[in-house]
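Researcher: For the record, we're logging two predictions in this thread. I'll number them. Prediction 1 follows.
Model: Prediction 1, sequence and structure:
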Amino acid sequence: MATGTTFSLKGKDRDSYLELVMAFPLASIQSEVHLAEAQQVMDRLLARGKLDHGEETYLDALSDLVATYEDAHHAISPASDADMLRHLLDARGITQAELSRETGLAKSSLSEVLAGKKAFSRLMIRKLADFFGVDVSLLAANL
């Protein structure tokens, strides 16, 4: 049973989209081989640079299919609290001592987190999220 939709591609955009679908159909990724083929198609599209609307639509859909497969089969564990804090410090270009002064968090507590001896406390999460301008959920992934 066909249903109507407000989404449509016309002209050259429709042609480029259908050409890509014919070459590599949009279907759920079912294996590592299929995943590798999908990634090659995406790499070729990204290497082109400027894409028309049909090509962008196809790339978006294929990317979603790849992401769904990878989420189910190649889950990435959250970064450790030490790795997360190290990244935030590097990204901001500040030292542990500067972070301690700016947030009021004890330098010894920050050192213990960076050494992997201590996890973020709820207070640390709140202060770090405010200071770095990130959502608390980013820092609370390991709670």
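Researcher: Logged. Prediction 2.
Model: Prediction 2, sequence and structure:
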Amino acid sequence: MKKASTHILAAFGFVALFSTLPGTVYAHGSEHRSQAKISDEEHAFGRQGDPKKATRTIAIDMSDDMRFSPAEITVKQGETIRFVVRNKGKMLHEMVIGTMDELNAHAEMMRKHPGMEHDEPYMSHVSAGKKQTLVWQFSNAGEFYFACLIPGHFEAGMVGKIKVTKG
């Protein structure tokens, strides 16, 4: 009887431990993104867009030659873009939108901690042969970038440019 109660307590402890953890943890390579609430967090390069308000869809292809296609896009200030990010390669790639300073800092962090877990609305991690959608509203005019920050990819030139023109 003592052995059975020990197993029950251990199972209860396991369930209790996991019920206190956050609902979902995302890592590089995750194909899923929380669909809960659209974030209102503002960045220099904009904010998460409402898919219902997307004004245009732009397909972005990623490949193992460490390039994006197209590598340059132009959008209007205030425009909400639905990016369909497709990985045509055989390895994991990602598209992360930001300023060049932010991308450089994040790339450095990724080199130091290649397995770090995170999921932001301006990031799309796409496994080989898969695609994912990222919706972004460009609220500020200027020049911004997108890059694959997986160690070695950014350094190999896997970077694109987004020119946001005044509305």
